[in-house]
Each structure stands twice: as C-alpha cells, then as structure tokens.
Amino acid sequence: MTENVVIRAGRREWAGLAVLILPTLLLSIDVTVLHLAVPMLSADLRPSASQLLWINDVYGFLIAGFLITMGAIGDRIGRKRLLLIGATAFAVASALAAYAPSAGLLIVARGLLGIAGATLMPSTLSLIRTMFRDPAQRTVAISLWMTGFTGGMVIGPLVGGALLESFWWGSVFLLGVPVMAVLLAAGPWLLPEYRDPAPGRLDLVSVALSLAAVISAIYGIKEIAAYGPGAGPAAAVVAGVVLGAVFVRRQRLLADPLLDLKLFAERRFSASLGALMLVILVGPGIMLLTAQYMQLVAGLTPLQAGLWSLPQAASLVLGFTAAPALARRIRPASVMAGGLVVSAAGMGLLAAASGTSGLAFVVTAQVLFFFGAAPLMVLGTDMVVGSAPPEHAGAASALSETVQEFGGALGLAVFGSIAAAVYRARMTVPEGVPAGIGEEARDTLGAAAARLSDPAATALLDSARAAFTGSLQVTAVVGAILVAFTAALTAVVMRPLSATAPSAQQEQKVDQTV
C-alpha cells in the first residue's frame, strides 16, 4: 500500500540555512557601511560629485539589473554552483574595492560587487525552496533569512563605525572576505544542488533587454526622487517601460524564455507579488522622511536618530519570527491582512505627529508599521517561492527581489514628491529673510537649517519645521490609505488560497510500498 509522507528538513538543512543567511547579512551591511565611509573616502580619493554619486548608486543599479538574469542562470547551471561563483566574485571585488587607488577603480569594483551580489539573493532564496519542502518549515526558514537581512542593517553601522575608528575607509569592504570564506568552506558540504533538468538555452537578447529595462527605469525613478521631475529622468523611465514591454513580448514568443510568464497565471504568485509591491512603496519613503524629521525637526544628532531606529528593526524581527507561528493557526491571508491593518494604524498615528513633541508618535508609528508589514513580507515571499515549480524557483526568487527593488525606488520618488510639494505649499518665509535664502528654504528644510543664525533664522526654521511636519502628516495619510487598500485586497483576493500551493503539496507526497 502507499502512504503520504511529508519530507521534513533535518539538521543538515538547518545548518545549511545558517550558511545561506550569511550573504543576506553581508549585503545589508554593505549597503549601510558605505555611507559611514564617504567622508574618509572623499578626503582620500577626492572623487568628483558625479563619481561620488556613482560610487553610491552603481552597486544597487547592477544588483537590480542582473537579478532576473542571475535567477535564470541559477535555474540552468545550478543554484549552489551560482552561489559559490558569486561568493568568490564578491570576495574578490570586496578586496578590490578596499584597496582601490582611485575613484574610477572604486566605481568599477562597486559595479562588480553589484553583479556578484545579484547572484546571492535569488540563489539563497531558491535553495531554501529546495531544502525546505515542508511548507511550515519553509516559512520559518524564510523568516530567519529575512531576519538576517534586518540584522545586517542594524549591526552594519556599529561594525562599520568601529572599523573606521581604527582603520582606513577600505576596511569596511573587507568585511565581505571572511564572510564569503565561511560560505565557500561550508557551502559545498551543507547545500544541495538543484537545476532545471531541461533548461533550454539562455537567450542573450532577453538578458540585454531585462538589464536595460530595469536599470533605465530605476535610474530615472531615483533621479526624480532626488532632484525632481526632469526631461532626462522621465525619458529614462519611458525607455525602461518600453524596453520592458519588448522584453515581455519576446518572452511570450520564445520556446525557452528567460522569464516564464506562465508563473503569473498562478494566483498565489501574482497576488503576493502585487501585495509586496504596494506595501514596499510605503516603507522606504516614510523611513527617509522620518529620519529627516528626527534630525531636522526633533533636533536629534545622527547617532541619536540611529539609536531611535533600533525599535523599528526589533519590531521587524519580532514580526518575522511571529509570522510562521501565526500562519500555522490562522489562515495566512488573515495573518497578512491583519498585520497590514496594524501597519495602516501606524501610518495613521504618524499623521498625528506635530513639532518636537511628535517624536514618540513617530517612533511608535514606525514600530507598528514594520511589525504589521513583517507577516506579509515573510508569508508573501513564501507564497511567491512556494507557488513556482521547483525548476523555476530561481527565476521566481529573482522576480520577487526585482519587484521589491522597483517598489522601493518608486516609493521614494512618489512619497518624496508628495512631501516636497506639500512642504513648498505650506512653507512661508517670514519678513526680514533675504529673498535668496527664503527661496532656498522653500526647497528643503536642510537648506533652511543651515543658512541663518539670528532671530530671522529662528522664525524661518519654525516655519520650515511646521511645513515639513505638515508634509510628513500628508504622506502618512497617503501611506495609511495605500496600506489599508492592500489589506482589503489581501483579505479578499488571497483568502480563498490554501496555505500550500498544489505543486508544493505534490512535492510532499512520497510513495512508500509496504
């Protein structure tokens, strides 16, 4: 007779998960430590303004641009093989960045780090899909994987600051070498290999189209977020959209597409991606505005503002770890929708912030927002990866990461534009302030804070702080509406979906003849 047995992960898989968390920890550290190193780096290499911009941005651009390609390559050559190749490249590029003798070579090294980094996230997530076939265990594994990323964001500034106190700016990049050495030593023994048994050939035209489309769109969106609308950034966004449409059309015609669009026919996959995109629109923009509020309105130092950000990181970790346990007892759609209601309440609380007395509102609002969003991030990612066939797990993982990159960039542009428009509309320049300084203060609160030191400065700053607080309140209301809409959409669209995709259920069944 036959019986159905759930294939559960053992000690080897959990030890392998610890290895897979290392790259996520490193990637988040690598994002945060560069900002600390910029002053020393600038004094040593003397980059131009354009070079400094590229030192900061080329890493993220190339990670986003190569995610889809690397996910597809991992499906074809093997996820473990791609992870180990990427880890080696990341370690080498880290050493090149650490000892770069010029700004130009540092830009090249950062670009190589971005390409190598694009191999790590989809490889680790798709390997989790392979190693943890039991849905409950896979959800826990993804929550721990995400916790590693959050942990890197917290410890990055601490470790980076300690290194910069004693060593040169390049020391922060050398963090990648020992981390990747551990991965390269343990990975071959602990991680399984999996590849598509019939992958087909890699379409290089599709690779070029996906790279150009993603980089063009994200570049344009980030430029709009940083400097406002302009012809160049708008053209880049339009070019990205057009190239993306060409890419999609080509995938429909190819026998072996780079990205199988049939994935979107699975409701769990498309609904989860959509919900993740909507919520991630809110997070980065609100984080940017609240960081500015803490320093420019509440008067905190950068260190104090950083310490006040720790509660939101803790709330994320708590939400990540609570999500799997809740999903075992409550329908996942209800867990996600309920969490988003908490997030929307957090945005509503943020809208009540006012002046320096609003710090408690801001911190509490962030805690509620991130705690409530955490279940969607864990369970939604789990649904994206779990609903894809095993042979396409790499592409599905890469698409999840790409959507989140787009969501973050678009959110910064949208919420930054809303905040800037409200700030300019509400900003009034008191009498006695020179016209030039007044116009500069209409653009940013930072400009208002830096130019004057007499009674006129006090009046100008009071007006600017009130205008900025008003812009934060309006963007919080917009964020609350968007998150509440996502909560309703999640409850309605995803409620009929089971906790386990049909393909995953089939994987768990092993025929045993007794």
Output the keywords.
single chain, 514 residues, mainly alpha
SSE topology:
Layout: H1 11-45, H2 49-77, H3 79-98, H4 103-131, H5 135-166, H6 176-190, H7 204-227, H8 231-253, H9 267-297, H10 302-308, H11 310-329, H12 332-350, H13 359-387, H14 393-426, H15 435-443, H16 445-451, H17 455-493, H18 502-507
Helix pairs in contact: 1-4, 1-5, 1-6, 2-3, 2-4, 2-7, 2-14, 3-4, 3-6, 4-5, 4-14, 5-11, 5-13, 7-8, 7-14, 9-13, 9-14, 9-17, 11-13, 12-13, 12-17, 13-14, 14-17, 15-16, 16-17
Describe this protein's structure.
The longest helix has 39 residues, at 455-493. Helix 3 (79-98) runs antiparallel to helix 6, helix 9 (267-297) runs antiparallel to helix 13 (359-387) and helix 15 packs antiparallel against helix 16 (445-451). This protein has 18 helices and no strands. Residues 501-514 have low confidence and may be disordered. It has 514 residues and is mainly α.
Q: How many strands in all?
A: 0
**Global morphology:** globular
What sequence of helices (H) and strands (E) makes up the elements?
A: HHHHHHHHHHHHHHHHHH
Tell me the helix content. Answer: over 70%
Instruction: Tell me what portion of residues adopts beta-strand conformation.
Output: under 5%
Indicate the structural class.
Answer: mainly alpha
Mean pLDDT: 80
Q: How many DSSP helices?
A: 18
Largest sheet: none
Report the end-to-end length measured between terminal Cα atoms: 6 Å
Q: Which stretches are poorly predicted, pLDDT < 50 over at least 5 residues?
A: 501-514
The rounded Rg comes to 23 Å
